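Notes from hallway chat w/ T.B., transcribed later so I don't forget. T.B. wanted the structure written out for a chain they're using in a teaching module, and asked if we could keep both sequence and structure tokens in one place. Agreed to drop them here.
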Amino acid sequence: MTATDTRPNQRDHILDTALELMSRHGAAGMTMRKLAAACGVQVAAIYHYFDSKDALLAAVVAERQYGTRLADPLPVDPDDPPDHRLRDLFLHVWRGALDEQQVWRLILGEGIRGEATVIPVGRDLLALVQAAALEWIRDSVPEAKPAEAVADLMVGQLLAGFVRHVFSDDQDASSADADRIGRESADALAATVFA
């Protein structure tokens, strides 16, 4: 098989490996040559699918299909009190964000370092999350007013909780620690909105 043969899962394998390498070493620390070696292919195979590192990074995020996934129905009981619905909404989003931890670490870390290739990708992802949060608030917790401010608080609390999680002392028990941080963040959000 030559480097440009197109196996059905080769592109996905390249994207998964790129995400892993970039989240570990940063976008600047991952070269197309290192990616090819990690994938067990020639560099030409990488360029067969992606014409640049910028295109590869954009594809890593785009392939996660956040727009579609963020539109999925949320498991919030409409009969619960508003503060409970807001907590449940936040915790659902929190758990989803933790499932995508590699992407968030990559985008936030590289964005903080000012990596030019990441800035537009991160900006688009944040706009997508903010728009989804606004719809979630309007649909699941219409009592939370003004919805725009509550959505901004929710996204801010999500990012703050993620930073707390990243710098947690208890990395060995990261799942329990993440649950605790999520609950504390959800409680703080509900207390702020429904004080």
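Follow-up for T.B.: Residues 66-193 form one domain. Might be a good example for the class.
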